[in-house]
Design brief:
A five-stranded mixed β-sheet has the order 1-7-4-2-3, sandwiched between helices. Helix 1 packs across helix 2. It is globular. The mean pLDDT is about 90. The longest helix has 18 residues. It has 13 helices and eleven strands.
C-alpha cells in the first residue's frame, strides 16, 4: 500500500504527428484527431477503451466521431496541468483510461506579423509593445543585471537545444545545424538580450497522451511510465500584464515571479522523496534561451545567479549530467500553438524513460523532469516521470 496519489496511474501512450511550418491538409481539429489515434495505438488500445477525454477542439470531437460517450470530460488540455488532471481523475475513479490530445494548424496565416499567440493581449500592454519576446526579455535582462549572466550563456543554451533538433529527423530544424553559440549571437536582435535564434519558432502539428489505471497498464503494448510528482505555480493571467521579476504575493515574499516554479518543484520532489540529483534528463520548456537557465536555478539544480555558469561546461549536453530538451524543443522540434506545445515536454520525457527516443536517448534514464511556461508568462508547471511505480 502507498499514500502516493498517483500510485494506481500510468502513462501508456504518447504520439507526435508530423510537425511542419505549415500543414496544408489539416486544421486544428483534424491534426488533433490524428494525434489521438496515434497515442491510442501506441498504447495498444482502441478508441472504445477511452472513457475520459481532456482537451478542446479535436479532442472533444473525438468523443462524437468515435461514438464513445458518455465519458468523463475536461476542457483544460494545457500541458502538465492536463496530465495531472487526468491522473487525478483516474485516481478518483472518474475514468479508467483518459486521452489528452491537442493540435494546431491554420492559425498563423498573417506571416508578416508575429504569431497570434505572441501578440499583445489587451490595451494595458499593447501600447508598450509587450509581445511575448519582450515580456520574457524583461526577466532575462533583470537577471543579467543582478548576477552578470552573459549572452554567451544564453547562446550556449540555444545552440545546445537547436543542435538536438538538428539531428532529430522529426524536428522542423532537422539538418539546419550544427549551431555554435556565435551563430546564435550573430542572428538579428529581436528583444534585447534575445537574438532570433534565442527564441522559439512557429509551426503546426498535433500530439497526444493516454493514461490509464496501473493494473491495466501492465498488460499493454509499452512499458508504463509513472507520474512521480507534479504541481503548478501561477502569479496571474499570462500575457495580460507586464511581467516583473520581483512580483510577489502573500504566501512567501521570497517566492517571487523570477523564481516561479520553485514551489511547484519542491512539491513535486517532496511527493516522491527525490531531489534534483536524482533526475537523469531535463525536458524543460524552452520558449527563450534564458528560461532554461532560470529553471535550473528555480528548481534547485544550482544556486540563484549560478545558472549562467552552470550551462557553460557541457552539463546540459547529451552525455552531460543534465541533458536538456533533447528533441529540440520549441526552438527546433516544434512550436504548434498554445495547446500542443505544452504537451510535448511530457511526451518526450515519457519517450526518454521508455528508452525509445530515435535521437539523443539518455542512456539509463530512469527519472525525467519536465516543465511548462515561464516567468515571462507568470507561471511554471513541473512534473517528474519515472520507471518505478511510486
Amino acid at each position: 500500500m502507498t499514500n502516493h496519489p498517483f500510485h494506481d496511474v500510468a502513462i501508456v501512450g504518447v504520439y507526435n504527428t508530423p510537425q511542419a511550418r505549415v500543414l496544408e491538409e489539416h486544421d486544428g481539429n483534424s491534426i488533433a484527431m490524428e494525434a489521438a489515434l496515434g497515442a491510442i495505438a501506441d498504447a495498444g488500445l482502441t478508441p472504445r477503451d477511452i472513457d475520459g477525454v481532456i482537451g478542446v477542439g479535436g479532442a472533444t470531437d473525438f468523443i462524437y466521431q468515435h461514438r464513445i460517450g458518455p465519458v468523463w470530460r475536461s476542457m483544460s488540455g494545457a500541458g502538465i496541468p492536463a496530465v495531472l488532471e487526468a491522473a487525478s481523475a483516474i485516481a478518483a475513479g472518474f475514468a479508467r483510461t483518459v486521452l489528452i490530445a491537442a493540435g494546431s494548424a491554420g492559425m498563423y496565416t498573417e506571416r508578416e506579423a508575429t504569431a497570434p499567440w505572441t501578440r499583445p493581449a489587451n490595451e494595458f500592454v499593447v501600447g508598450f509593445g509587450m509581445f511575448t519576446a519582450a515580456e520574457f526579455a524583461l526577466i532575462a535582462r533583470r537577471h543579467m543585471e543582478m548576477y552578470g549572466t552573459s549572452t554567451e550563456s544564453l547562446a550556449t543554451v540555444a545552440a545546445t537545444i537547436r543542435n538536438n533538433g538538428h539531428v532529430n529527423p522529426e524536428a522542423i530544424y532537422f539538418g539546419r545545424g550544427p549551431f555554435t553559440p556565435q551563430d546564435i549571437l550573430d542572428s538579428r536582435m529581436i528583444a534585447d538580450p534575445f537574438h532570433l535564434l534565442d527564441c522559439a519558432m512557429t509551426s503546426e502539428g498535433g500530439c497526444a497522451l493516454v493514461l490509464t489505471r496501473a493494473d491495466i497498464a501492465l498488460d499493454l503494448a509499452k512499458p508504463p511510465v509513472y507520474v512521480l510528482g507534479g504541481s503548478t505555480a501561477n502569479f496571474g493571467p499570462a500575457y495580460q500584464n507586464p511581467p516583473s521579476f520581483d512580483l510577489d504575493g502573500r504566501r512567501d515574499p521570497r517566492l517571487v515571479n523570477g523564481w516561479v516554479g520553485r514551489s511547484a518543484a519542491r512539491t513535486s520532489f517532496a511527493m516522491c522523496g527525490l531531489r534534483p540529483a536524482d533526475v537523469d534528463v531535463c525536458e524543460f520548456y524552452d520558449p527563450f534561451s534564458f528560461e532554461i537557465i532560470r529553471q535550473f536555478e528555480a528548481f534547485g539544480f544550482c544556486d540563484e545567479g549560478d545558472g549562467g555558469a552552470f550551462v557553460l561546461d557541457g552539463t546540459i549536453e547529451i552525455g552531460g549530467r543534465y541533458p536538456v530538451t533533447t528533441d529540440g524543443g520549441l526552438m527546433s522540434f516544434s512550436h504548434a500553438g498554445a495547446q500542443a506545445q505544452m504537451l510535448q515536454r511530457p511526451i518526450r520525457a515519457v519517450q526518454q524513460v521508455r528508452g525509445e527516443c530515435r535521437t539523443q536517448q539518455v542512456e539509463g534514464a530512469v527519472v525525467a523532469m519536465c516543465s511548462g511556461g515561464g516567468a515571462g508568462a507568470l507561471f511554471t508547471d513541473v512534473m517528474l516521470l519515472g520507471k518505478e511505480r511510486p
